[in-house]
Amino acid sequence: MNSLEVLSEWDSLPSKSFTRESHVDELAISCDCSGLFNLLLSHLSITLPYRLSRPKAVHYFNLLQEIGSNKISTLKPGHLLAWRKDVLPSSGDTGHVLMLESEPVLLRDKVYSVSVYDATKRCDGVSKRSIELHTNEQGVLIGAKLHQDESKVKRMPIYHAKIEGSRYCFGCALPHKMCMCGHVEASKDQTSVVIFRHPEERKKTISTVSLIKQRFPSVLVKDSEVFPEPRAKEREQQVLIFPGGDIVEAGFAQLNMQAEAKSLERQYILIDATWRKAKKILHLNPWLAELPRASLSLDKLSNYLVRKVPSEDALSTVETFASAVGDSALTTLFDLFMQKQIQMIGADCYRQNYAGHINYSDD
Description:
- By secondary structure, this protein is of the alpha/beta class.
- The protein folds into 2 domains: 3-162, endopeptidase fold (from Nostoc punctiforme) (Alpha-Beta Complex), CATH 3.90.1720; 176-354, no CATH class.
- It is built from 11 helices and 16 strands.
- Helix 9 (317-325) packs antiparallel against helix 10 (328-345).
């Protein structure tokens, strides 16, 4: 059976309930929204997001953000959809995950009705029902109304992707041929670093942000060129990791096991973009350009061996992130990732195309 057939069968079970513990047998199913799809992926022998034993909605969202789409035009039956909360609670709801059962139907301008399978407390577990999805003028998903009797539309990014026959590994969000599973253990730590990513970076088949998420599956990544200006109180806690600021040592953005944002002394913003587009983001977001800056103290060249490094003090996003939080495991994962890429393109091809780069290595 495919995913929709399995969900249909589970929806018809005589006993259904909404619980944090997930279980299904021939008579009953009990689960919450993420638990439903943990059961489904396990039933279909598909790796759970980031190889976590009990991934939550935030982890499904972070996975779909890397491998999927945010366009209504590409949304198909059988696609998994998810959204997340920016500020994660210490327990409970981190977002929502569901599966599309039928094609979207246009209700009115930029509003669609879709039939979905999900598990909610209001429906006491698994159910098939209709929800509304909202888009902007470009057809990008920007919000949802989960229940028909609700008047308020939740505004948030939404991503979706198919789960069966995907070219991506769900354990690391990389193409199967580049799978990095087994090289690092996912950390439960919350980080004080938020990534502002240019949309063009997300479109790349292989994004090093996927490596960051493999190590830190709950990290918050925002995709845009223009970002909403935070309140003054929030801005007081924010620091931009960017050249031209006070030099800081590795590990300055310490990991924090507490999930509440208010427990973090600082929030560090890291821009994921080419140098030219990073400067454009600063131009389009004056509030961001005005933040105090932190610059890393470098003792070696970037190890991003398959990219042209613009200068000796330039690091990739993953290297900057790993240095900021002082995580050697992520650095090791990135080094292994570079070795694997060079092996795939071949040593001769690598030498021919990259020997002129300042960070070229023939080791």
